[in-house]
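New to this. Please check this protein:
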Amino acid sequence: MDQFKVVLTDQVFPDTEIEHALFAEAGGTFEVASGDREAVLAAAADADAVLTTYFSLPRDDIARLERCKIIARYGIGVDNVDVAAAAERGIIVTNVPDYCVEEVGTHALAMVLSLLRKLPAGHADVLAGGWGVGNLRPMLRPSEAVLGLVGYGRIARHLAMGARALGMTVLVHDPYLPSAPDDAELVELDDLLRRSDAVSLHAPLTDGTRGMIGAAQLAAMKPTAVLVNTSRGPLVKLADLVEALRTGRIAGAGLDVFETEPPDVSLLQGVPNLIATPHSAFYSEAATRESQQKAATQIVKAMRGEPVDYPVRPLP
């Protein structure tokens, strides 16, 4: 195998020792790009492979990658890469769809349970001098709750497993599923919103899903229901959600992702029954190492002419 060059567009990990070791063993060089956007693209122009996390690669910038054979993303979503444009140029796009399933599924379940058990409201009540359950009524028994999952990939299935262990009923909306999965009921989105006590989003960010939860969808939910998003921030119109929480239109929300990251905290301060975490649902030490190992391995395989494990194809 000829020597190859790999460029990392944005370094977000504590170190890149895993990548350095893998590429060196395979006969490659590895550069962590720095500087502004133009400097990063200049460094990647003659790269055989590009590693990326959040750095956006639209059509015009992909056209500047003169030698690139593969764009490998560390995470699950690939909305920062124009996959269709890459395919037109014969560039493979990969992700790591199975690296933080346990972490994100557990994070989402923790948010669902915290909101259904009204932990934020109880915490605020105690700090305000309150006591007892008077301000927390009504509250469902967990086994009486209906959990609605929008999207039913690996993470949603992990969440469903935990929810079923608590006796919850699971509804699923996923336009890519031909039939009901597991023992869940497959329903339309409107039906899921109307019937669910907790709605958890697990959809990719596409033109069709951007802003899929706004004022109309929040109005369709039960006033006692809660919304959780650990998927992609732009699925939810934040201003509409904040208004729904402030007016009591829904009972609570948990957000690990936001339309703009980091969010404008002034929009979130004082919003009742909101749990906000800093895009941390994916994180554990093991998950971080797994993402680095698997993303880098896709590049080594592509450079060797071997099939990659996680090819991402353009949506039809």
Summary: Residues 101-276 form a domain with the Rossmann fold fold (CATH 3.40.50.720). The first strand starts at residue 4 and ends at 8.
